[in-house]
Amino acid sequence: MIPISCSSMAKTAKWVLISIAHFTNEALSIFVFNLLDLIDFGLCFVYKVADFFFESEWKACYCSSHKEAISSNDGNKILVSEKALSLSTKLQLEEVSDTLYTRPSLLTELSKVAVAELRRLKVKPFVVGSTGKAAVGSTFAVNSTIVEMLKEKINVGQNPRWSECDCQRCTSCCSSSKQSLFVRSQGPQDNPREDVLFIHGFLSSSTFWTETLFPNFSASAKSTYRFLAVDLLGFGLSPRPTDSLYTLKEHVDMIETSILEAYKVKSFHIVAHSLGCILALALAVKHPSSVKSLTLLAPPYYPIPKGEEPSQYVMRKVAPRRVWPPIALGSSIACWYEHISRTVCLIICKNHRFWEFLTKFVTRNRIESFLVEGFFAHTHNAAWHTLHNVICGTGGKIERYLDELREQVSCQVNIIHGGDDDVVPVECSYNVKARVPRARVNVVQNKDHITIVIGRRQAFARELEEIWSNAKS
């Protein structure tokens, strides 16, 4: 007999356990997400009735559509009236991610099979789910639901919807999208040598910076730089307009209007986290001669394989429809299910004062209160559209931004990533460096997506000051 070493047996046992765990995760995920598909489908009708009851009007959603799209002759634009869309009279389809209305699932596949069979039998079908052109088309094969959203849902006004919080803190910022974003400023207000723009990540706010870094900057930095931390459109204390699709362009335009123009910013550094990195890249490319340094924390960049549809690929990377790890389950629910995620916002965000109190009580204030408040400070409309139109929808744009950053923008590029980050993999930062070779990557061990900042406040503040002082004048 051939002797089998203990190490070989251990490796075999480990491989078996990993295989069993992988199979269990796959099987359980299939069951759970097929069940969630059905629940979301049922909630669609529940919210239709509830919206009509509370707001006396049927509201459009991205599950189905029943009206013809209004498009220009070249098929690349949706035309809407000035009344329907306050930010623009023309909405470029490339600004709207097809993941909003095309999210493949077993339910939609069965629906397509049923529709095909009904058409074969020459029976007019009632379409269930994301079918039709949007289900099989490209980014420019747009579901008419978007037109319906623009023509009907957008006209509901600026007041909070029945499923949103109406407390003073939330309603004070829910006004017209033409108003400025909320900005926290610190440092010399008159003639600062340079400005520093801080952009937070998804489901966060400007307090992510003001409560961690601002108190830890040196006296010299505080007297030299003007720090500008912004609450993005739809988050924190910034406006949460119902007449917005929260596209990349809208976010960038609002930053330009509320900060670069309002504060007369000429030369500035950018520090951005997660989602904010996408906006930072867009700003750097748009203002190449003004940006002095670019510091990206956990940039969510996923190179698109040849033949893949960018937004769909990024959605699968961000939200893989798996029950384990828990972060994958949470992101999948937020990204794939319009009505389940709205229910989560209804339960949590509408009752944020209770959950904030409960979190503080249970954890005995071990969790930073500003993180909890920032997590709840948004509406479903803002989170849902930002997630799809900025994170997923820019999958095909980021490579172009990085190429322009490499070729056209001369600013210093620094990337910092937590070694234990389970939200955005460390590989994303190395992907950026592969595209922009001059970028410097610093992987901080034993830190994750959040503790990369709040777990090393003083050290990170010193690092930023060094980056700014070494940047080209």
Secondary-structure blueprint:
Elements lengths: L5 H50 L21 E3 L10 E3 L13 H15 L12 H4 L8 H7 L16 H4 L11 E4 L7 E6 L7 H4 L8 H6 E6 L17 H14 L6 E6 L1 H12 L4 E7 L12 H9 L7 H11 L1 H11 L3 H12 L5 H8 L3 H13 L5 H11 L3 E7 L8 H9 L4 E5 L6 H4 L2 H14 L3
Parallel strand pairs: 4-5, 4-6, 6-7, 7-8, 8-9
Antiparallel strand pairs: 1-2, 3-5
How does this structure look, described?
With 473 residues, this protein is an alpha/beta fold. The chain has a domain of 288 residues: 3-Layer(aba) Sandwich (Rossmann fold), CATH 3.40.50.1820. 46% of the residues lie in helices and 10% in strands. The protein contains 19 helices and 9 strands. Strands 3-5-4-6-7-8-9 form a 7-stranded mixed beta sheet, sandwiched between helices. A two-stranded antiparallel sheet has the order 1-2. α9 crosses α16 and α13 runs antiparallel to α14. The chain is globular and about 70 Å long. About 11% of the residues have low confidence. InterPro entries: AB_hydrolase_1, AB_hydrolase_fold. It holds the Pfam family Abhydrolase_1.
Short description:
The chain has 473 residues and is an alpha/beta fold. The protein is built from 19 helices and nine strands. The protein has a domain at 183-470: 3-Layer(aba) Sandwich (Rossmann fold), CATH 3.40.50.
Q: What key phrases describe this protein's structure?
A:
single chain, 473 residues, alpha/beta, Rossmann fold, 7-stranded mixed beta sheet, 9 strands, 46% helix, 10% strand
